[in-house]
Design brief:
Its cofactor is Zn(2+). One of its GO terms (molecular function) is hydrolase activity, acting on carbon-nitrogen (but not peptide) bonds, in linear amidines. This is Zn-dependent hydrolase. InterPro entries: Amidase_Cbmase, ArgE/DapE_CS, Bact_exopeptidase_dim_dom, Peptidase_M20. With 408 residues, this protein is α/β, with parallel strands linked by helices. Helix content is 35%, strand content 21%. It has twelve helices and 14 strands. The strands form two sheets. Strands 1, 2, 3, 4, 5, 6, 12, 13 and 14 form a nine-stranded mixed beta sheet that branches. The protein is globular, with a radius of gyration of 22 Å. The site of one manganese (II) ion has 5 residues, from loops.
């Protein structure tokens, strides 16, 4: 049995990390590979080194901190991310990393020698807000994206990923994929309303829905807003607005679990009295079923072609990320469920609406996730919050299962 975990230190560290990249009025912005992300990484590495863990950084900036086991070999890996969106909170990703450190500390407090090593991992650019695709670091780690190609990815600010890694001092030299996992666990906030609405304490995550990110670029012709008759316009702004509305209509028409989002829409020259020359927008489509996601993508392609023809603008699309739905290892999912039950927590099986590094680790080892409730179902929002009692329950499930998997 693992000794009691230290929820007070977890909460204090979540707050301390939340002060790195803190926004006026609350919330956090530590977009991947910015100076703020670098500072957050440095703080977490400081905690890892203070715990005398073996810390290595790989060439895509993934950080691995290992507590050795009696036997060498693949670790029980506990991971997540500490990069955030621009309107981030204290918990998305950060909880999974800092909870992992608490598990290792509890093993030390109890002088418990585990058979397997236990590793805490921090994966680069999970969010995908500044560089696409999301889950980029864990995707490279499992061999799903070539390192050289990943280092050439351009951010939405135009910088090169490899240059930003160097700039923040996290272009590591440890062998890619060198730290292997026998199993992977990730504690994460639900980021949605289900657990709170049902009054359930633990989410037993069965898998992650499919994700499709597309960038749509529309090329029109700027001209005077007052002097150009509607029939003579090539209005990239109007075309973009019609496509954005159409994304909502596609999602509503398919219904059920289908979601569609236009999160970014940038016009040029972006002026009150100039018909837009260009529009660049992103479309985020997600669904648990691959065939339905493909159907939605087909409808999007038809929408773009039709609106571009009607508004007499050029249209180009580019895939930013595309991941099919992932099912986690059923046996490990069952062990998460059994652990929650044994600890006396109410629990329910559920899918993840958000993408996570666990879906990449699932390509190379049994992976599973534990959800804790999000207050008001909010995340990617500065008001993101999870109650300490819920943090403690999630941490207890994580610690108990990690010890079982690592073998006392
Ligand atoms: O978009 C996502 O699901 C994740 O936060 N990257
Ligand atoms: Mn996350
Ligand atoms: Mn996120
Ligand atoms: Mn995520």
């Amino acid at each position: 049995m693992i000794p009691p975990v230290d929820i007070a230190r977890l909460s204090a560290r979540l707050a301390a990390l939340g002060r790195v990249g803190a926004l006026d009025g609350g919330g956090v912005s530590r977009l991947a590979l910015t100076a703020a992300d670098g500072a957050g990484r440095a703080l977490v590495v400081e905690w890892m080194r203070a715990a005398e863990l073996e810390v290595v950084v790989d060439p895509i900036g993934n950080i691995f901190a290992t507590r050795p086991g009696i036997e060498p070999g693949p670790s029980v890996m506990i991971g997540s991310h500490i990069d955030t969106v621009a309107t981030g909170g204290l918990y998305d990703g950060n909880l999974g990393v800092l909870a992992g450190l608490e598990v290792l500390a509890a093993l030390d407090d109890g002088a418990i020698a585990t058979r397997r090593p236990v590793t805490v991992a921090v994966f680069t650019n999970e969010e995908g807000a500044r560089f696409q695709p999301d889950m980029l670091g864990s995707l490279v780690h499992v061999g799903g994206l070539d390192l050289a190609a990943a280092l050439e990815v351009r951010s939405i600010d135009g910088t090169r990923l490899g240059d930003d890694l160097e700039r923040i001092g996290f272009a590591g030299t440890a062998p890619l994929g060198g730290v292997t996992a026998a199993a992977y666990l990730e504690l994460h906030i639900e980021q949605g309303p289900v657990l709170e609405a049902e009054g359930v304490e633990i989410g037993v995550v069965e898998g992650v829905q499919g994700i499709s990110w597309t960038e749509v670029t529309l090329g029109g012709r700027s001209s005077h807003a007052g002097c150009t008759p509607m029939r003579l316009r090539h209005d990239a702004g109007l075309a973009a607005a019609r496509i954005a509305a159409g994304v909502g209509e596609i999602a509503r028409a398919i219904g059920g679990d289908m979601v569609g989002t236009v999160g970014s829409l940038r016009l040029k020259p972006d002026l009150v009295n100039v018909i837009a020359q260009t529009a660049v927008m992103t479309v985020d489509l997600r669904h648990p079923d691959e065939a339905t996601l493909v159907e939605a993508e087909g409808r999007l392609a038809g929408l773009v072609a039709r609106v571009a023809a009607e508004e007499r603008v050029d249209a180009a699309t580019r895939s930013l990320a595309r991941f099919a739905p992932v099912a986690f290892d059923p046996a490990l999912v069952a062990r998460v469920e059994a652990t929650a039950a044994r600890l006396g927590h109410s629990h329910r099986r559920m899918p993840s609406g958000a993408g996570h590094d666990a879906q990449m680790l699932a390509r190379v080892c049994p992976a599973a996730m534990i959800f804790v409730p999000s207050v008001d179902g909010l995340s990617h929002n500065v008001r993101e919050h999870t109650d300490p009692a819920d943090l403690a329950r999630g941490l207890g499930v994580l610690a108990t299962l990690a010890l079982e998997l690592a073998g006392p």
